[in-house]
Amino acid sequence: MNFLTLLQAVFSLALTLGIILLVAWGMRRYAPGLLARFQAERGERRLKVVETLVLDPTRRLVLVKVDDQERLVLLGEGRELDPVEAPRR
User: Fold this and answer.
1) What digits encode the pLDDT tens for the residues 26-43?
2) Are the beta carbons of 9 and 16 closer than 8 angstroms?
3) Which stretch of DSSP H or E encloses residue 40?
4) Which of 3, 71, 78, 83 is deepest in the core (most CB within 10 A)?
5) What is the pLDDT of residue 86?
6) Are the C-beta atoms of residues 34 and 40 closer than 8 Å to each other?
7) Does Cell division show up as a keyword for this record (predicted)?
8) Going along the chain, which residue ranges are E strands?
9) CA torsion angle for 34, 51, 71, 58 (degrees, to 10)?
10) Residue ranges for the chain with pLDDT beneath 70
């Protein structure tokens, strides 16, 4: 590997990283304004996630507000769980 090939590889790497940084800067600067403009055109949303609670690595509880009603949804792997009885005292 001669010096010119090494220099070309370093220049190509620097150019690629520069383009990636330029795109990242542009997205951080201009993307929030563009996204807000698109969301404003859609109007008022009917569905809103109020709160999320992680139960374990495979399940979570999500409190969702639809219109003016709140619903509690259990998200998981899709298998049915057996009910667990509370310990008796």
Assistant:
1) 888 887 777 666 665 566
2) no
3) helix 3-42
4) 71
5) 45
6) no
7) no
8) 47-56, 59-66, 69-75
9) 100
10) 35-43, 79-89
